[in-house]
Amino acid sequence: MQFDIGRLDALTAAEQGRPMKLYHPTTGQPFLRADKEAVHIVLLGQASAVLRACQRSITDERNALEADGRTPTPEQMEAWDVRFLVEATRGWNFDQLDGGPFDFNAANAQKFWADKRFLWLRPRAYGFINETGNFLAG
């Protein structure tokens, strides 16, 4: 029996992004829009060129600090987290924040991931990005 290893391509979907559904942290139930579609954020996968370049840039910045005998501050580490997640985000299907319009764009992605109210979503996003199975073809 033959097996085509090309079926394990996780790069194509990682470059396109896949939807990460949002679940209530207590009940585990998916958040739904009025039309009953699951609320989601479209994220790139770890294998994408964009995220690999972003990670290299962050690593270079961290190495430069350490070469100067400095350690990153908690604020700098959080800024790197936000930057990485902004780079990873390619869309979403919610359209309001605090009762006002909140379309997807880079500025709103920055605002969303930097918002302390949504800290609980960061580990979920990192887990989704790093889980290769989310980016393998069915």
Could you give a quick summary of the protein structure above?
The chain has 138 residues and is of the alpha+beta class. The protein has helices at residues 11-16, 49-67, 74-88, 106-114, 121-130, and strands spanning 18-21, 40-43, 89-92, 96-97, 100-101.
**Strand share of the residues?**
5-15%
Write down the secondary-structure element order. Answer: HEEHHEEEHH
Distance between the termini: 20 Å
Radius of gyration, Cα only, in angstroms? 17 Å
- Bulk shape: flat
Q: Widest sheet: strand order?
A: 1-2-3
Output the structural class.
alpha+beta
Number of domains: 1
Mean pLDDT: 95
- How many individual β-strands? 5
Q: What is the helix fraction of residues, given as a range? A: 40-55%
Which regions are unreliable across 5 or more consecutive residues at pLDDT < 50?
none
Record the SSE blueprint.
Layout (H helix, E strand, L loop, with lengths): L10 H6 L1 E4 L18 E4 L5 H19 L6 H15 E4 L3 E2 L2 E2 L4 H9 L6 H10 L8
